[in-house]
């Protein structure tokens, strides 16, 4: 059971890093620091979009329009941290 908790914890941690990388890349593209026409940047951006957008899309539908500010990654990170802590609290006695 402890190995399964460790695996889920690491998957959540990696996904949080991917969310942060996606947000930072979107800022870099918005401020013209990196160019999307660069093939490597385009591939990285496409990968991050495909990995994070299916989870962020339902959150964006529920949130009110805040102009140009997208807080859906923050809400998802908080939810993932809550889920991880809840998982450890619920299964701590079993491990």
TrEMBL record:
<keyword id="KW-0472">Membrane</keyword>
<keyword id="KW-0812">Transmembrane</keyword>
<feature type="transmembrane region" description="Helical">
    <location>
        <begin position="62"/>
        <end position="83"/>
    </location>
</feature>
<protein>
    <submittedName>
        <fullName>YggT family protein</fullName>
    </submittedName>
</protein>
<dbReference type="Pfam" id="PF02325">
    <property type="entry name" value="CCB3_YggT"/>
</dbReference>
<dbReference type="GO" id="GO:0016020">
    <property type="term" value="C:membrane"/>
</dbReference>
<keyword id="KW-1133">Transmembrane helix</keyword>
<comment type="similarity">
    <text>Belongs to the YggT family.</text>
</comment>
<feature type="transmembrane region" description="Helical">
    <location>
        <begin position="12"/>
        <end position="34"/>
    </location>
</feature>
<dbReference type="InterPro" id="IPR003425">
    <property type="entry name" value="CCB3/YggT"/>
</dbReference>
């Amino acid at each position: 059971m402890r190995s399964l908790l460790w695996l889920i914890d690491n998957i959540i941690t990696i996904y949080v890093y991917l969310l942060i990388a996606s947000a930072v890349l979107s800022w870099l593209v918005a401020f013209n620091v990196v160019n999307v026409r660069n093939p490597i940047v385009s591939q990285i951006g496409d990968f991050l979009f495909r990995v994070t957008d299916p989870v962020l899309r339902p959150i964006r539908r529920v949130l009110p329009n805040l102009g140009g500010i997208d807080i859906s990654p923050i809400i998802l990170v908080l939810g993932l941290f809550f889920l991880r802590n809840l998982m450890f609290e619920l299964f701590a006695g079993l491990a």
